[in-house]
Amino acid sequence: MGKKVRKESETPCKETFEPLPVEGKNPATVVLLLSSPEEDILVKACEAIHTFAEKGDENKVSLLGLGALEPLCQLISHDNKLVRRSALMALGIMTANSESDNIGNQCRLAFSVIWWRTMQPNVVVHEFATLCLASLSVDFVCKVQIFDSKGLPTLIQLLCSPDPDVKKNSLETIFNMVQDYQSRQAVHELGGIPQLLELLNSEFPVIQHLALRTLQNVTTDKDTRNTFREEQGFEKLMDILSNADFSDLHIEALQVVANCLNDSESFQLIHQGGGLTRLTEFIITPNITEIQSCAVKCIARVAQSAENRKLLHEQNVEKVLVELLSVSDVSVKTASCQAVSKMSFHLACKDCFRDLGGIPEIVQLLNNEMTDNLRTFLFILVQQLYGNCAGTVANSAATLGNMAGQGVIRCSILLHGAMQALVEPLKSTNVQVLVNTTQCLAMLACDTEARAELQTAGGLQPLVNLLRSYHKEVLHNACLAINVCASDEPTAVEMCRFGAVELLHEINQSVKRRSSVSKLAMTSLLNSNLSVKYSLTGHLSSTDIIRDGFYDAGKVSVCQRILTLEELSEQPVNQQRPIIFVNTSRKITTYFPAYFSDTDSDFGLITPLLDRKKKQKDETQPESPTEKQWKMMDDVSLPLLVKEVKESILPLSEEREQYAALARLVSEAMGGAVEMEKLHEFPWVLHLSELKFQLQSNVVPIGLIRRGIYRHRALLFKCLVDCIGLSCTLVRGEYNRAWNEVLLFTGNPSSNGRSSLPCRYIVDLLHQPGSLLKANTPAAVQYQTI
Ligand SMILES: *[C@@H]1O[C@H](CO)[C@@H](O)[C@H](O)[C@H]1NC(C)=O
Ligand SMILES: *[C@@H]1O[C@H](CO)[C@@H](O)[C@H](O)[C@H]1NC(C)=O
Ligand SMILES: *[C@@H]1O[C@H](CO)[C@@H](O)[C@H](O)[C@H]1NC(C)=O
Ligand SMILES: *[C@@H]1O[C@H](CO)[C@@H](O)[C@H](O)[C@H]1NC(C)=O
Ligand SMILES: *[C@@H]1O[C@H](CO)[C@@H](O)[C@H](O)[C@H]1NC(C)=O
Ligand SMILES: *[C@@H]1O[C@H](CO)[C@@H](O)[C@H](O)[C@H]1NC(C)=O
């Protein structure tokens, strides 16, 4: 049946074609159709382009590539109204909301054509012409073009258009234009203010918003503000502010108010109309922070004038502001800080802030040199570190860390108590917080005071604890921070006390966890704790200077906690090797003044030189009740040895001779030369046992050792060398054997100027004391190995 009908309809019209269906499958074809002489095809082509362009920028680009704009621009002046309209609609779509510059540029080419068509009576034309303008007017060049072609008066007229879309598009164009000074003034001069105020009554929120934002821009101009006042602008704004249904408009309305408050005339007006009370109400309204911060900004504005500050003081605004300093929202806090600093120019206000208390930071801020805003900002950031929101804390820490790069700013950050504030975040379980906090810490802790502050605030323990983290970045940053904090001995010592070395040692055992940074942290820490360094690495370089308190606890191979000298001395006497320590000081203790006469070199005196426990047992010793602290045992012999070395070794002219003489002296002190074959007969083991028993302690001062072998002699040698400013290493080999290496210049300058090359020597302290064995020779190797 269908077929039949079709055949029937085909037969009567033989002269013309039946209308062809335009199927916009191929955009190129459709663009070609824009040049068709047939009006209904033109309309359909325009509509097809409209639909196609509506689908997105990509389609617009392809249409531009096909040259669709040019015929469209011609078509908007076509005789046929329907064609004009559809062409304009297509153009409107094509020019609206384009994100690509390319599209924007081409649209601008079409722009002038479009503009001159806006005066046509057809509302649809207006709608789309203004739509084009709205999107084009974002561009500076286009704005100038609109301005120069006297577009602004037309646009202001169009604000009264009955069509809300035309209103909205025109307003949007005006808003874009008033971003520039020229147009801002023109709007006022062209009588645009009443129209803008009228639009505040629009039933369309989008229009109300745009009108407010435009007003916000134009009221930066003083003349405009005068007009605004004359046109009862304030009353209209207050109506909005008093209407809870318009709460979405409150922020923008307040911003306009803030602008107007710059003039004291305006402020008087607002104040008289009860506006100040209204503002204070907005400040107290606790739930919408953005409105709050905006209202506080208004107060800050008001507070710029001395006269106004008095008025604000009378309203007791200070109290509210101080309360706002402790709210969590940053923008409110920042605004409040600014208001406080402005208000503080008024003496009574400043006193009031002081009396209200809790803001010493603010007062401190007021006294130093940085700009108000920066100071306020830093203050806020530091305060935020105390917050509960992980994201905020992380961001604050990151920002502070970044800013700390500049010295002055770093000081200011520290002044605000940043170190203390970082302690809690260091205990966080949030990875981002930890990453950012440790990074910030590494940046801030670059001077001794800052590090001391961190220590006082109890930040070192949580920092060290982060070494347990298996999160790569957290661990990395913690190591960085520890590396920085290890620069001072007190902080380094405390970190060791919290087990940093052991943890880093553990990390170093894991191929996955160790990194250059963890090694760096380890090295820095160990450099502050040579005892541990020697225990763990078995190597002290010539720049590692042994000092009092150094102890050789032997090799620590597995990851175990390295006990302190105090802990070691409190252990009951055992069968293991003694711990040997260095103490060159000769303090006359209050307990035993009589024993330390100048001639005193009697080792029999060691018995009274025991540690605290022993002394306490001794009834005859007047133990003061406060004297509970552990004290390192004195070494009656070592100071004498040091004295002798200074007198006899230092004067020698040759370095080689100095080392040799010192070697002989060390050997003498520890039982003299022992032939290698007779070593097993040398009674050093017995001697040390006796010493331990006599001292009732596993720790033994090195000066008291009268029979010592490799490791005792090497340690004494290192210790004496360091005392007189020579240099040598201390190296531990297998089976606790140890030796010293010195660098000497080869003594033969005749051979081709080679004399400047230093050679390494191992110092023989045992078999032929004073021999310097060239490193890697069989003699040296024999000395180093069993
Ligand atoms: C105009 O006001 C808007 C807010 O509505 C603001 O973002 C913009 O910076 C202002 N422009 C100028 C030039 O003041
Ligand atoms: C308000 O006045 C201050 C100086 O008194 C000025 O810096 C600021 O730009 C003014 N703001 C407006 C919106 O006029
Ligand atoms: C703010 O509080 C008022 C009552 O105090 C309430 O009516 C309003 O819904 C609250 N607004 C928000 C955003 O919580
Ligand atoms: C800090 O933390 C935030 C997440 O809160 C993250 O986006 C940012 O990248 C971090 N900054 C740095 C420097 O790591
Ligand atoms: C050295 O490290 C050990 C082990 O961590 C620690 O107990 C001791 O207090 C540290 N001593 C010094 C002087 O740093
Ligand atoms: C760390 O581990 C490497 C490889 O096991 C080792 O060579 C190095 O001596 C270790 N460093 C320390 C300080 O223990």
UniProtKB/TrEMBL annotation:
ARM repeats sit at: 150-192, 191-233, 417-459
Give the matching InterPro entries. ARM-like, ARM-type_fold, Armadillo, Armadillo-Ser/Thr_Kinase, EDR1/CTR1/ARMC3-like_pept-like
Does the UniProt entry include the keyword Signal? no
Q: Which UniProt keywords apply?
A: Repeat
Q: What superkingdom does the record give?
A: Eukaryota
Domain named EDR1/CTR1/ARMC3-like peptidase-like is located at: 634-772
PANTHER family registered for this protein in UniProt: ARMADILLO REPEAT-CONTAINING PROTEIN 3 (PTHR46618:SF1)
Write down what this protein is called.
Armadillo repeat containing 3
Q: Which organism is it from?
A: Sparus aurata (Gilthead sea bream)
